[in-house]
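Pasting as-is:
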Amino acid sequence: MEGYEFPVKWVTEGGASLLVPDSPAPRKGSIPFYNPVAAFNRDVSLLVVASLGVERPRVADAMAGVGSRSVRYALLGAYVEANDLSPSSLSLLLRSARANGVSDSIGVQSTDARVFLSAESAPNRRFDLVDVDPFGSPAPYLDSALAAVKSGGILAFTATDLATLCGRYPRASMEKYGAFTFRSEFCHEVAVRILISYAYRRARLQGLSVCPLLSFYADHYVRVFLRVTVKGPVGPELANGFVVYSWADKRRLWGNDPRDLIQRAPAGAELGGPVWLGELSTPPFVQGLLSKLEGLKGQLERPQRVEKLLKALMDEFGYPPFYYLVPTLVRGGNPPMDAVLSKLRERGVRCSPTHFDGQGIRFDPGAEDPSRFLSGLLKP
């Protein structure tokens, strides 16, 4: 197509027509990038915007790229301020906006995301939802993003630096998030809890508080939606905590006092945190998304997957933090998950699968060795 130094094509996502680069993978340089796998991320985000309860919500797409998120938000009825450093990306975005008839619903800026969000942080300019979707860590952008959200609004952000958050690069985790981390079979949940804790701590410095509305792991990224409000009293059990983990027996302890945890932990246990110790999502909010899903299925690319995720999150509420992997507990065997859940429920144990891992399970073994607890219950 004329006007571009790279091949482009039209695609359809969630009912929106998008002009995108005809390139299979991101490249170094100025060529924009479109990721069709992230359509699911955008589906969930669209549902959240639809739940804002505002007639025409004002949304910030701080790293808009080729505009797939911005255009879909605008088709939903939002007014979107779209920002990106790449002129080529913004050119594609504007073409897509015109093709979908939403040019009047999208404003375009081209600057660093932090500069963009800081300029929009005056009380009369803040957004109902701020969306930060970087390549890598969201940490550099959270201060300016928090400042740009209305009180009662939502901050949404994605993290793809899971190698850092999941323990491969513990020094990088400390540098980026001020948190210890370690390798474990439940590392993706640790990643979410580190991110929420980090956002919570940054918010408190601005006189704000955050509450997790929806958090999940999918396709090698983590996505978090937080309600942002003026700071109020918060119980310590919902603030920063720590977790210690023993590889030997898969036992994990958590609480607010790291010294106490270390004293009670088995020899060789590792310390992680600060982490968020409350729920990762809010049940009424997730239920509200489910109730809106049917009316929006025509605007979603993968509505069945969205529904499956939301129902899984509803099932996970009310359990202690940090799921277990059945194969690591039942040593020498890998029983089907349905059989494990059925057997545990027959024995009166409350349990649930987790969306974090197809072999993951949530239950409370108490102070016992979870391997012995589960193996004992699964015996005929």
